[in-house]
């Protein structure tokens, strides 16, 4: 009985479609979700236990910063960019050495990848997440001298404070530049091991010189984990503008 | 069954449907049906509202507030679909610590119907996404990701058909090319098929074979790329295809104040909408259908 009813209903709907269903009107609006809308208690009850667990994790103090560390306090460098590059150099270099018996020559990231400033005072896990919310991993690219020249050209022409580690000393003059890497003059015939993120290595921010390196070593280590591990082993953060970029 | 008897029974059936609570005043003559489409994109694990001190989005967003708003709209019109255009994962520690479990649980509570897959939904690898599927009481659609050689095989369909108020709605999904955007070790053997060709095939199928009254594309291709205008995007897709009524987009975090109306390849209107990111906005598109026994279709009024 029920089946035959369903069958008839099905036929009825089928025959309905023979009449014209005409789309006569469309209205649309995008609605802001803001403080004028009350929170659903039912949803909040589900969120709360997760939120409590997370709060404990996020509020964990990792280290201390005597001053605010920002990404916009220098000319083609910043105290936060310098810190980020130097932290990852230190944390990444030991892993790279274990894997390859070689050392990283320097680190380069992009300025846009610094996602938040670090406040003065206690630095927590949450700050590390704000600084690096993405899941990018550290990779080491072995770059030819020609690629290093492309890298410097990009840096000079892009005019942004892309983070470079303390291994670099780049002097920009009115016409041209001088480059030292780990205290030695840049050698066009040498291959350099440059640490960056998998995002930039893949051509992110048009850093195309990272593409197709001579050798690519994945460290299987997230940039954020490098930051958190560094914060954990450090008591007081030190970050400064220094002589890695000299503008004459 | 003789034809006369059949018609008689048909009349009975339609009376029953009216009693059954469908909002059809009569089966004969003009009727109006009303479908509401609600949508989000790139919610990026934003479970809570933004902090009151946030420089840009203070107090905005939040799943609990979204729930209230959606409930209100469902009370207005029970024939509501709730859709998402991908990048549900990644962006707050909720994802890093719980792997997307809470995101899917809450979307299930909000009664999402269908979602597509964004590039960040692979951030815990394809296995990480697969692992969370039991928490999702809604379907994933993707027509141009080929999951045949992955754990997601058979778990993601190219499209889904939903009946609401007698209206047949086809919803299909499109994803962005993963190579160069996502680490291969994350998406593994996921194949990428040309979104334009797939759209041509699927829309023909949905329109002609399935006879859908409404065709919606959930796209994570991105709204438009100013610096790369030939790259496939929602605006380009709308222009060079037909039969799509609405493209719900994502990926580019484009905050549209209202949907863009695009003339498709046969000169008909396609709506392209996207509501930025982080659950700050909810998109709403209402479709009204008139029913005629005779073919006197006038145009469609679009009020946006």
Brief sketch in words of this structure:
The complex is a heterodimer of chains A (248) and B (304). With 248 residues, chain A is an alpha+beta fold.
Provide the fold topology.
The complex is a heterodimer of chains A (248) and B (304).
Chain A: H1 2-16, E1 20-32, H2 41-58, E2 61-65, H3 79-100, E3 106-107, E4 121-124, H4 125-131, E5 137-143, H5 145-158, E6 168-173, E7 176-181, E8 184-185, E9 192-197, H6 198-201, E10 215-222, H7 223-233, E11 245-247
Parallel strand pairs in A: 3-9, 6-11
Antiparallel strand pairs in A: 2-4, 5-9, 5-10, 6-7, 7-8
Helix pairs in contact in A: 3-7
Chain B: H1 3-19, E1 31-40, H2 63-76, E2 80-84, H3 93-98, H4 101-109, E3 114-115, H5 125-132, E4 139-141, E5 145-146, E6 156-157, E7 159-164, E8 167-174, H6 184-187, E9 191-192, H7 195-209, E10 214-219, H8 234-240, E11 246-248, E12 260-263, E13 269-273, E14 281-292, E15 301-303
Parallel strand pairs in B: 1-2, 2-3, 3-4, 4-6, 8-10, 10-11, 11-13
Antiparallel strand pairs in B: 1-14, 5-9, 7-8, 12-13
Distance between the termini of chain B: 49 Å
CATH topology of chain B: Purple Acid Phosphatase, chain A, domain 2
Count of runs of 4 or more consecutive helical residues of chain A = 7
Architecture of chain B, CATH level 2?
4-Layer Sandwich
- What overall geometry of chain B do the principal axes of the alpha carbons give? globular
**Superfamily at the CATH H level of chain A?**
5'-Nucleotidase, C-terminal domain
Look at the structure and give the mean pLDDT of chain B: 90
